[in-house]
Amino acid sequence: MKLLETSAKGFQKKLEKLCGQIRSGGGIEKAVADVIDQVESRGDAAVCEYTEKFDGAKLTPAKLRLSDAEIAVASKALPAAQRKALRDSLKCVIDFHKKTKPKSWRAKNPHGATVGEEFYPIQRVGLYVPGGQVPLVSTVVMTVALAKLAGCPEIVVCTPPQADGSVNSALLSALSICGATEVYRVGGIQAIAAMAHGTKKIPAVDKIYGPGNAYVTEAKRQLFGVAGIDLLPGPSEVLVLADKTANPAYIAADLLAQAEHGSGKEKVYFVTTHRKLIDKVKSELAKQAETLSHAKEALDVIATKAIAVVAGSLDEAVEVANYIAPEHLELHVADVEQRSLVKKITTAGAILLGSETPTVLGDFTAGPSHTLPTDRTGRFFGGLQLIDFMRRTSIVKYDSKSASKAWPTVRAFSEMESLDAHGRSLQMRVES
């Protein structure tokens, strides 16, 4: 774990450099572009080739889509306790997001004209769900549930297959419970390219959602405009901001939890006003990792990518947090400080308050979607929300009286912009 102090000379430049070192960019643009070009030009054949190359699964185009029967069989195989957990998480997510559903409205503007907004679900949405060794079942709940609640008629899901072509039964059960309408055993760049450009077996979608590794994120970046893109959530990251009241065991557990995802590009930040707390957390990290199934992956991330920052005050800690703009930000500070810090921290994807609120609650069940901005994109992105599965149209209706009131303004703008046809289009109505 690298150690920085805000009081040290050149601190900001060192922080910027370290943040840059662990970002998921790099020389992957051409590799991603090549796969996208092949999928666009050769369709399903290219999708199958890359699925064999990257996932080890030999599939024909006819086997890309999972049948309803396959999904049903897998769903029935899931233990009852796990099905119950899925439904509990789904309930929390729906309860949270239904409060955010926008409503169409009408009102009068200063001219007396009717103006307003209409909201519509996006017709065909494509959701990417990471699979492989760490199948993100929770991502199904955090994306598909929102699409269903928004009323999207066609909810398409792509997820990587195992080498034998199968898909994790818990994933399939979640997809069935949450309401996916099409499921394809396709992952990686080829999945994003297929959903954006469309193939014979995978018709194009209108907008693509979901987290992924650096290659998936780059594919989404390159295909923005071909299809809509939600945001660019990459490998998981967490920032724990702590004062002297914090429990080092809790902090270590939460850092390991985000480091264990397995890509090696996870980002782990620990910012504290209490220097001695860092040593206590390091001791806990080593002790707790001994019993983890992904210990090696997690400790590798801690050793090579984690950054500990000693801040001179909570205000300095907040400045560091706002620069990093973390996906998850945990506040392990005294209760009296939490309210003010929430107002000062303006770039985090999600803020988890207090020592009893580990990030895992937001990951699995609290309610807000865990699809959140990473790589400092929290400066301009928020987390996934229901409105992202909808689009709005503005409504305008003038009559002769309100049009007459607007005419002087329209005439002035037409003159300033030398667009006389614009002005005439209203003038002829007013004069008649």
TrEMBL record:
GO MF annotations, alphabetized: histidinol dehydrogenase activity; metal ion binding; NAD binding
This protein's name: Histidinol dehydrogenase
Family from the record: Belongs to the histidinol dehydrogenase family.
Entry annotated with the keyword Oxidoreductase: yes
GO biological process terms held by the UniProt record: L-histidine biosynthetic process
Cofactor entry: Zn(2+)
Binding locations of NAD(+): Y128, Q190, N213
UniProt keyword annotations, A-Z: Metal-binding, NAD, Oxidoreductase, Zinc
Active-site residues per Swiss-Prot or TrEMBL entry: E327 (proton acceptor), H328 (proton acceptor)
Residues binding Zn(2+), per UniProt: Q258, H261, D363, H422
UniProt gene name: hisD
Binding site for substrate: S236, Q258, H261, H328, D363, E417, H422
UniProt keyword Cell inner membrane, yes or no: no
Cofactor note text: Binds 1 zinc ion per subunit.
EC number from the UniProt entry: 1.1.1.23
Organism field: Rubellicoccus peritrichatus
InterPro entries recorded: Ald_DH/histidinol_DH, Histidinol_DH_CS, Histidinol_DH_monofunct, Hstdl_DH
PANTHER family in alphabetical order: HISTIDINE BIOSYNTHESIS TRIFUNCTIONAL PROTEIN (PTHR21256:SF2), HISTIDINOL DEHYDROGENASE HDH (PTHR21256)
Superkingdom of origin organism: Bacteria
Any single Gene Ontology cellular-component annotation: cytosol
